[in-house]
Amino acid sequence: MWDSKALISLQRSWATQRRVIWALLMREILTRYGRHNIGFLWLFVEPMMFTLGVTALWTATSNFHGSDLPIIAFAITGYSSVLLWRNMPSRCLDALLPNLALMYHRNVKVIDIFLSRLLLEMAGATISFVALSVFFITIGSIHPPEDMMKVIWGWLMLSWFGMAFALLIGGLSEEFELVEKIWHPVSYITFPLSGAAIMVDALPKAAQEIILYLPMVHGVEYIREGYFGSRIHAHYDLGYMAIINLLILLVALAQVRKISRKVIPE
Amino acid sequence: MIRLCDVSQYYATRTGSKMVLDRINIDIHRGERVGILGRNGAGKSTLIRLISGAELPTKGSIVREMSVSWPLAFGGAFQGALTGYDNLRFICRIYGTEFDDKVPFIQEFSELGLYLREPVRNYSAGMRARLAFAISMVIEFDCFLIDEIVAVGDARFHAKCHEELFVKRGDRAMIIVSHDPTYIKEHCSRAAVLSGGRLQLFDDVDDAFGHYLSN
């Protein structure tokens, strides 16, 4: 049985946390995008510009991606996925410093600052992905996804990976300065390995085994299967991805808790 | 009541762990005004942050049975990139209160006029103090934590602060931290002296005053 007092206190904490995350989210939108020109629309216009740029580049160079899929569809699914899981850790690097003054308020916790940034990043990448898909489907450049649920599910799995990984990177970067220096090359090098630029099926057998150790590859492959269905042969194991996500998340939460105890408001 | 029980605080420095507060014990009751005297660097602001809950102690426990404000100082607790109004909005959202009905008070008290629409980082120290104090008075607490409030502002501003804090909110508990004994003497019923990480309590403000000066 639930202790009613504990339940009420839990409900209250949840209400407070929601309020704080919402306040931080609004603050973040204002400081990042301001009220000038298109304001908060930059949230998804920026990732859209990235994806469109890469799509144009890949189209122009007839990028080899190991299948006969149209390059536009390939680029949109691939690059949107990269933006989703890669921008989240970037936003969590040194996320506390600009917010230290706000930590004078007892209810503002380290995890709230991370979560508000993550929600915003996820919203931006998702809106960008949906808007570009709708646009190219409408003008007839690509076909609608064969299995929408798979696309959504894959996208959620990738978001989960991105959030867990971001919390880990963000938490570690507060303790070790080195993390920030290493993150940039790592994020750059993992791009071609993330399954965004090539189908796993097109790789030699030995390379497939190695690349499938990377959790995000499974998410991207699953999204592509949802998008293209029978036209491709996707390689994934969502159970494996879920276990890795969970492990990263656990370590990340422990690290965030550790740094939370040490944060000194400005 | 607020109860601090054997609260110690250590900070990691290049030369090893440094003790800032050493086994602090103090009870603060409803409606009570306690002054904490200490020289620069004695750990007054650290103590206030711990009481507010913004920072956690290395050892010991802090129990809060009344609502406690954030440390009201004339810096901190605000975001420089946001405008005055946006900072107010942020505080209202965090504490779950309406924004619109607070605006007239903020305008009247801060006397900032159109500057409320400018980023706080462009404000002068005096303007910042006016905004910070005005926003601080928007959320009601049982206990206010006041950190070096006399540091900035002109006489007129001080008079307005005095009215809001000590007249209109005279029934609240307050913990006032300062290196200025006369300010503590004027406003507190009880005082403590912080030195060498230890907090020494005095029932009489004059005794605390004497101890502080002789140290």
Condensed summary:
Chain A is an all-alpha fold.
Can you give a write-up of this model?
The model of chain A has no long low-confidence stretch (mean pLDDT 89). In chain A, helix 5 packs parallel to helix 9 (238-260) and helix 8 crosses helix 9 (238-260). Chain A has helices at residues 4-33, 42-60, 71-92, 110-138, 148-175, 178-193, 205-211, 215-228, 238-260. The longest helix of chain A has 30 residues, at 4-33. Chain A is globular and about 55 Å long. Chain A has 9 helices and no strands. Chain A has 266 residues and is mainly alpha-helical. Chain B is an alpha/beta fold and 215 residues long. Helices cover 33% and strands 29% of the residues of chain B. Chain B has helices spanning 44-52, 84-94, 103-110, 125-136, 155-168, 181-187, 205-214, and strands at residues 2-13, 16-28, 33-37, 59-64, 68-72, 143-147, 173-178, 190-195, 198-202. In chain B, strands 5-6-7-3-8-9 form a 6-stranded mixed β-sheet, with helices on both faces. A 3-stranded antiparallel β-sheet of chain B has the order 2-1-4, covered by helices on one side. In chain B, helix 3 runs antiparallel to helix 4 (125-136). The longest helix of chain B is centred in the last third of the chain and has 14 residues, at 155-168. The model of chain B has no long low-confidence stretch (mean pLDDT 88). The A-B interface holds A 15-16, 19-20, 22-23, 26-27, 30-31, 98-99, 101-108, 260-261, 263-266 and B 11, 49, 52-56, 68, 70-71, 75-82, 86, 89-91, 93-96.
